Amino acid sequence: MLRRLLVSAALVACFTASPASAGLFGKDDAKKDAAPAASASAAPKAPAFKPAGKAEIEAALRADPLQQSVFFNDQFEHNPTDAKMGLYLSNALRALGRYPEAADIAHRVLLFAPDNTDILLAAARAHIADNNAFFAIDPLQHVIELKPKDWQAYSLLGVAYDQTKRPDEAQTAWNQALALSPNNPAVLTNMAMARVTRGDFTGAEPLLRTAVAQPGVTVQIRQNLALVLGLEGKMPEAESLLRRDLPPQQADAALAWLQQAVAAKAAPASTTAPTRSWDSVRASGS
Fold first, then answer.
1. Are 76 and 89 in contact (CB under 8 A)?
2. Confidence (pLDDT) at 43
3. 52-99: per-residue pLDDT in tens?
4. Burial environment of residue 87 by CB neighbours within 10 A (0 to 12, 13 to 18, 19 or more)
């Protein structure tokens, strides 16, 4: 019995592995089997990946965030050790509001570039935007270890501390940021918006006025001042700032939101507050 099994096994091996087994088929069958292999070898090969040049990268950075995300995702996936492509991709995803993905890309880069301060800041920004500021604290503290005079790290650390309900540490971080970069509009705005979230519009206004008075201030900072002025009831000045920076329809929508918010604040507690945020009004322009 054992001998028969061994013989059977040997026959199977011959049929599956021996070149002589080709003689068991007709010539036509052999030709048919050979045809697919020949056509497969003749198929055109995909072009080799070529990293983007400086001009292509600069053009991509001028595109909208969605186009940026597509371009830099392709570059990063083909070369996942390119820290710069990872940084650009993380920033694009954050601009699209895809905060967890932005943080994930930044942490993928940190696996092989743990001391890259730009990536550490990108990871922190993504976590803060995703309301997960606790996870931004370690990257920011690491940036400060590497670059003790980086005001951005202290400014963002203040935001992270404030979001995690550590206001005294937040103020200390912001004071350090201002010591490194006096009257920096970004730092002043972060301090002001922390007060806005607590309903302290009176405390936020002077900080934003100082920020707006600095050279090169952004539209976003002026809109933040308009928000605070409007919520304080200073509607004419708020309207002046809004109409300076926004098209008429968007300015009208922002003013309508402010008027509704002020009315809700003055009305009894049972009155329904505005259902849309300032950010949603500003973003949609409706």
1. yes
2. 60
3. 889 999 999 999 999 999 999 999 999 999 999 999 999 999 999 999
4. buried
For residue 180, the Cα-to-chain-centroid distance in whole angstroms is 26
Backbone φ and ψ of 275, nearest 5°: -90, -10
DSSP string across 150-219: -HHHHHHHHHHHHHTT-HHHHHHHHHHHHHHSTT-HHHHHHHHHHHHHTT-HHHHHHHHHHHHTSTT--H
Q: Which pLDDT does position 36 carry in this prediction?
A: 52
Per-residue tokens: 225: 């001042």
Angstrom CA distances, 146 to 82, 83, 143, 153, stand at: 21, 17, 5, 11
3-state secondary structure of 272: coil
Structural tokens at position 281: 């009004």
DSSP-derived secondary structure letter, 19: G
Query: What's the mean pLDDT when you consider all of the chain?
Result: 83
Query: Is the pLDDT assigned to residue 281 strictly greater than 50?
Result: no
How many angstroms separate the CA atoms of 223 and 246, rounded?
A: 9
Confirm if 160 and 129 have CB atoms less than 8 A apart. Answer: no
- Whole-angstrom distance, CA of residue 110 vs CA of residue 136: 13
